[in-house]
Design goal:
This protein has 19 helices and 21 strands. It is an alpha+beta fold.
């Protein structure tokens, strides 16, 4: 509309407002903008919104973002030192970190309760680590980290002198080679697959998998990298929404977080382990208390274990180590109560010939199938029994008794010696034996060696010899292949011994169980044969599994020109290379007097306290 120019006429603004009205409107608008941006940057839990407006902060090389299970902690505030975990002082020595770091002041307990992740992480430095006891918000809970360190009988990284001063030797060169393999495997993962579950080295990308919404490789790599003093020590990836195996979350994430806390003292690991453990508790809400197998952090659906289906022995039976430590670090007895109830169910239920079948209904509490295996589906249940006894400072007599009773039944009904003199543990299906042994069952040599010392006196020498014979059989499964790597399963029938009989069992996916037994047998006997066998594995890995961008499994161990499966499994870094490194290291590096390894090779400390403690108890 054309406005006429009339003397004394003041035209209105384009919005139909006069000048005083326009001034008031602009004043209101500026106040509103100020309020919005103030809320954005000052209110708690606004980090997601900040990322919409702010460029991401540059992190120091080699450090990853530590993510909260719910919410986020700014990365700069939770970065650990880029160096490997420091050696723990021997008993009676002062902790130098408590003098050097202002973040670990003595007497640093706060009287006020932390109000968020940032406050929780900073309120717990020094002699005591303060947290609130779940369910009792007003009562402070203290974990004395320095007292824990002082009770260790050996420094974590051993007493070996600085390697720069160590005389050149064949063993040192072998150890350095294994360290280089770890560096190469980790750097390849970091370059091509960071944030994904696993690396695919042939296609140089990452692999997510069908079930696990979790990037497990970074957690699994953490302790191997820390142990080997590799400069790049990552932290932990974001726990993404999605379904995951209860077992995998426990042994990989919770086990890794607990191990990281005990080795580094970084409080953020303790907080995350407890919070993640709390998120798993609804899985135990079944008529028997046996947990369901699959959890969903997104929907709250707790899995496939309903009436007519079953939970797996190796999964629900491999929670004890981690859950007792969750009670020890949180003061919340619910974690210990959940796993003790599992034991109660297993002791009460009738077992065929004293054997533990692999499948149990969490609804009825009855065995679903009579399939018994010391390999896949059953393996780590037996391992956790003897390790619970050792981790408790040899006070958990219930675990000890269950272990030796189970071992006696295994010897009676599953143990066999082939016509060629090879000792193996068969699988049992309703009374009928499958004369095969899986690669996963080859951990049993190390397990039996570990438990030999505490057996009845007349059985100790027998168990040591049994451990050696089983480990020799597993070595034969490697030695009889063209690649000197072992198949997934090997049979004893039709005149063939310790070899796979079909292509579907001839693959090798970088598994650790055989070298795990080599490590335990070496520490028990110092027989040089175990280092010789371990070095054979190193050479075979280099020749047949190393690719341009990482290590890959192979599809046929009986072919000298194998096809790669294009997967660098996360347990290759967490377990296989770690056990090889320990095999060529001194015994006081992660001494077995101070540490037990969970089934994913994360070290957890033995209870050396004078009292039975909050979690361990006496059974």
């Amino acid at each position: 509309m054309l406005m006429r120019k009339v003397p004394g006429f003041v035209p209105a603004s384009p919005w139909g407002l006069r000048l005083p009205q326009k001034f008031l409107f602009l004043l209101f608008l500026s106040g509103l903008v100020t309020l919005c941006f103030g809320a954005l940057f000052l209110l708690p839990h606004s980090s997601r919104l900040k990322r919409l407006f702010l460029a991401p902060r540059t992190q120091q090389p080699g450090l990853e973002v530590v993510a909260e299970i719910a919410g986020h902690i700014p990365a700069r505030e939770q970065e650990p030192p880029p160096n490997p975990a420091p050696a723990v002082p021997a008993p009676g020595e002062d902790d130098p970190s408590s003098r050097a770091s202002p973040r670990r002041r003595k007497g640093g307990l706060r009287r006020t309760r932390p109000t968020g992740p940032r406050e929780e992480a900073t309120a717990a430095r020094g002699n005591g680590i303060l947290a609130s006891r779940p369910g009792d918000e007003g009562v402070p809970f203290r974990f004395d980290f320095n007292a824990f360190r002082s009770r260790l009988r050996h420094p974590v990284l051993g007493t070996r002198a600085d390697e720069s001063q160590e005389p050149q030797s064949r063993v040192r060169a072998q150890r350095e080679k294994i360290k280089e393999m770890m560096q190469f495997a980790w750097q390849s993962y970091k370059r091509y697959a960071m944030g994904k579950n696993e690396l695919r080295p042939l296609t140089k990308d990452g692999y997510e998998g069908n079930m696990f919404g979790i990037s497990v490789a970074r957690v699994n790599c953490l302790k191997g990298l820390c142990l080997m003093a590799v400069p790049t020590v990552p932290l932990l990836s974001v726990l993404q929404s999605g379904e995951a195996s209860l077992f995998e979350v426990n042994i990989r994430y919770i086990g890794g977080l607990l191990s990281a806390f005990y080795l580094t003292g970084e409080e953020v690991f303790r907080i995350k382990a407890i919070r993640l453990g709390e998120k798993l508790l609804p899985a135990f809400n079944t008529p028997t208390g046996i947990p369901k197998g699959v959890v969903s952090f997104k929907s709250g659906n707790w899995g496939w274990a309903t009436a007519g289906s079953s939970s797996i022995l190796a999964e629900f039976g491999s929670l004890h180590l981690e859950f007792l430590h969750l009670t020890e670090l949180s003061g919340n007895q619910v974690f210990a109560e959940k796993v003790r109830n599992i034991r109660k169910v297993l002791r009460k239920i009738e077992k065929p010939f004293g054997l533990y079948p692999n499948f149990l209904s969490p609804v009825s509490g009855n065995w679903v199938q009579h399939h018994v295996s010391v390999g896949g589906l059953g393996d780590s249940f037996y391992e956790y029994l003897i390790k619970s006894w050792l981790m408790s400072g040899k006070t958990d007599t219930e675990a000890k008794n269950m272990y030796y009773e189970a071992l006696e039944a295994i010897e009676t009904y599953l143990l066999n010696v082939s016509p060629g003199g090879l000792t193996y543990i068969a699988e049992w299906r309703g009374g009928i034996l499958d004369h095969k042994m899986g690669h996963l069952a080859c951990f049993s040599g190390g397990m039996i060696a570990l438990g030999a010392e505490d057996a009845k006196e007349e059985k100790r020498a027998h168990y040591r010899e049994l451990a050696a014979q089983i480990t020799k059989t597993c070595h034969e499964s490697y030695a009889r292949s063209d690649t000197k790597l072992g198949p997934e399963a090997f049979w004893f029938n039709s005149g063939r011994e310790a070899v796979a009989t079909q292509l579907s069992e001839s693959y090798y996916i970088l598994r650790p169980e055989v070298v795990e037994s080599y490590m335990y047998l070496w520490r028990q006997t110092h027989n040089p044969i175990y280092r010789e066998w371990g070095w054979e594995v190193v050479l075979a890995l280099e020749k047949y599994c190393r690719t341009e961008a990482g290590f890959s499994g192979i599809q046929d161990v009986y072919s000298s020109t194998p096809n790669h499966d294009n997967k660098q499994q996360s347990f290759f870094l967490a377990e296989t290379l770690k056990y090889l490194y320990l095999l060529f290291s001194e015994d006081d590096l992660l001494s077995l007097e101070d540490w037990v390894f969970n089934t994913e090779a994360h070290p957890l400390p033995v209870n050396h306290s004078d009292s039975s403690g909050r979690a361990w108890g006496r059974h």
